[in-house]
Amino acid sequence: MMPWxxxxxxxxxxxxxxDGSGGGDFxxxxxxxxxxxxxxxxxxxxxxxxxxxxxxxxxILGLTGAPAPxxxxxxxxxxxxxxxxAGLALRTLQLNDIxxxxxxxxxxxxxxxxxxxxAALQIRQCTAVLIGRCNILGxxxxxxxxxxxxxxxxxxxxxxxITDSVMEGGWGTDDFESGGDGGxxxxxxxxxxxxxxxxxxxxxxxxxxxxxxxxxxAASLRRKELADVEGKAGERSQSxxxxxxxxxxxxxxxxxxxxxxxxxGS
Length: 266
Known about the structure:
Elements: H1 3-10, E1 15-18, H2 29-35, E2 41-44, E3 48-49, E4 53-54, E5 59-62, E6 70-80, E7 83-86, E8 89-99, E9 101-105, E10 108-109, E11 121-124, E12 128-132, E13 135-137, E14 153-156, E15 159-163, E16 166-168, E17 174-175, E18 178-179, E19 186-188, E20 193-197, E21 200-202, H3 208-265
Parallel strand pairs: 1-2, 2-5, 3-6, 4-6, 5-7, 6-8, 7-9, 8-10, 8-11, 9-12, 10-13, 11-14, 12-15, 13-16, 14-19, 15-20, 16-21
Antiparallel strand pairs: 17-18
């Protein structure tokens, strides 16, 4: 666990357990949030859970060393920090209008299941967001028709620090001759401040452009292969022609040698 994450747990007055199978204090994360007081710690056991809305300063953590709890709907966080989400497998996360520190640590977004919105992580008008050790994939294009991939992270008028994370835009889809563009790894608007450290950022693959490139490459390879075949055939034809000329010359030499020898001997 990262040192700054320990600061949250050391000051927490109460711990609430969420277990979808019924072995904890609550079976859903939303129920635990509604019952919690500011500063409480909510520990979530492995399982699949509905999305939730967090509007109070809490920490929501998966268990260390256990499979990450999977959240199947959008998670929305607003209000006053500090807030912390850690060790969760999310589809889509929205951080909106948070005053104070918001931490997202050791989470996956848009990986275990496709992001519901274009951006797997959307950050809007937040004063201080820290993203660490996360793996984030933007929404990929819809199969029906050419559509663009979504960005992994979309930052609007916020201050964000991202460390030790991997962000990849969603890939565009094909539709015959056209296709969608790949999404950005990180997209930030004017008025935003984004700092990256020890992280990988990659745009998503494009749809039809990738296919067109592959088709052009295949056509080029076919042309090269055809040229190689024609070249080898030409070399064989030239070799056959030389052999035929040698055979004709030998034939005439064979026919003319006795007459030539008789003339020279007379």
